[in-house]
Design a protein that fits this description.
Elements: H1 2-20, E1 28-29, E2 35-51, E3 58-73, E4 76-91, E5 112-124, E6 127-134, E7 155-165, E8 168-179, E9 190-203, E10 208-218, E11 226-239, E12 242-255, E13 264-276, E14 279-288, E15 322-335, E16 339-351, E17 358-371, E18 374-384, E19 392-402
Antiparallel strand pairs: 1-2, 2-3, 2-19, 3-4, 4-5, 5-6, 6-7, 7-8, 8-9, 9-10, 10-11, 11-12, 12-13, 13-14, 14-15, 15-16, 16-17, 17-18, 18-19
Length: 403
């Protein structure tokens, strides 16, 4: 009862506060050419994890606040942003070693207070440069993302150059530090090294094509040092009153720098989608290959929660690799007093790339809508292990607003 009361109280505060925030985020003139923008975001989330093992069920009620200021003058922008997370209900393993043995399942949202971003940039017509601690999302975040699902997002200490010249796009990053989701009190708070992240694309009328290269040389995370080269293409084909969308990605990865493994593995993803009678249907095959069961294709900088199921079973690719056969259906509909509601259901079937091992299956479902200006989200994941890992169920109820 206490947990439910805390959750309802926190969401009520968000709902009541939101209308009063209207207009607060308007630009503030500080001089003839200098303007300041204040941005803020708050997120309250209840997460429960039930696993078929000896660990107790996790119950986590966390609040994340993020506040920043952007100063703009002469086309130059300077952004400073802080981020803090705290737990109102903390019956969960937050991954921090200083809390002793936690008899609960993991919810990777530890208490944290940090400088999230501090950057200076110049951008004009899609071209420019950004220097400092920054959020980086490349493409669909399958290889490089900000892990925005967790309360503490992933950022990078980096220099980023972007250019748009007609139909040609270039996005290049050199990062010296990967600031993880685990917070300032974690031994995994950051991983330093030399990270080269390169995308070059063509936005053509019939098809979009992007070539990419990700070269990771970690100082202390040697097992994830790698060189990845690949190509992705996407298109939309008219079909009556709708479009069929098609996309495909191929990449090859090999060990680099101090990685103790000697391997080469492939990545394949093929997706087809179509809208039918108000429903969006999608089917996907994704393969993170294995080199004979010795080592597998890894994506340590990705927004992993968005792929291979929301239960987060495959955050590190098993040495035998992963094949994910999945399909989803989504629809938007209106409810009286609420408005538009986005609903989605997805199914995954997992198996190894090497050795023909069944990794089980997973059902995912979500409902999202806005209530009094607050973004509300209900999500559920149910992973059936088939003996590979452990059966896992996760449930989330989230409220978020910002300006």
């Amino acid at each position: 009862m206490l947990k439910k009361s805390c959750l309802l109280a926190a969401i009520s505060v968000l709902s009541i506060s939101t209308p009063a925030m209207a207009g607060v985020g308007d630009p503030i003139p500080l001089g003839d050419d200098l303007v300041m923008d204040i941005t803020a975001n708050a997120r309250v989330r209840y997460e429960t994890v039930d696993q078929d093992n000896a660990l107790g069920n996790a119950d986590a009620l966390t609040v994340r606040a993020r506040v920043g200021a952007t100063f703009s003058a002469w086309g130059i922008q300077m952004l400073v942003e802080g981020e803090g997370t705290t737990a109102l209900v903390d019956d969960f393993n937050d991954t921090l070693p200083g809390n002793g043995v936690e008899p609960f399942s993991v919810v990777a949202d530890p208490d944290n207070l940090e400088l999230n971003r501090a950057q200076i940039s110049y951008m004009k017509d899609g071209s420019g440069i950004t220097l400092g601690r920054q959020r980086i999302i490349m493409g669909n975040a399958r290889f490089v993302g900000n892990v925005g699902w967790r309360q503490n997002e992933q950022t990078f200490d980096a220099v980023r150059a972007q250019a748009k010249l007609g139909v040609v796009n270039f996005d290049g990053v050199y990062a010296t530090s990967n600031r993880t989701i685990f917070g300032v009190d974690s031994p995994n708070e950051h991983f330093d090294g030399d990270m080269f992240l390169l995308n070059a694309g063509l936005d053509l009328e019939a098809v979009d094509v992007t070539a990419f290269a990700y070269i990771l040389e970690f100082d202390t995370r040697a097992a994830f040092s790698s060189e990845t080269f690949g190509l992705t293409a996407s298109t939309a084909i008219p079909l009556g009153s709708t479009n069929v969308t098609l996309s495909a990605t191929y990449a090859t990865q090999s060990d680099a720098d101090l990685n103790p493994a000697n391997y080469t593995a492939d990545f394949i993803s093929v997706t087809a989608g179509v809208g039918v009678a108000g429903f969006n249907l999608s089917a996907n095959y994704e393969e993170l290959g294995s080199d004979g069961g010795v080592a597998a294709f890894q994506t340590p900088l990705a927004t992993l929660h968005a792929f291979q199921g929301w239960a987060d079973i495959f955050l590190t690719t098993p040495a035998a690799g992963v094949r994910d056969y999945n399909a989803s259906i989504a629809r938007q509909f209106a409810l009286p007093g609420i408005g538009n509601v986005n609903a989605a259901v997805a199914y995954h079937k997992f198996e190894s790339d090497f050795g023909s091992v069944s990794y089980g299956s997973e059902w995912d479902a979500s409902l999202g809508f806005r209530l009094a200006g607050v973004g509300m989200l209900l999500k559920y994941a149910n992973y059936n292990s088939s003996g590979f890992s452990v059966d896992t169920q996760k449930l989330w109820l989230q409220a978020e607003f910002g300006f």
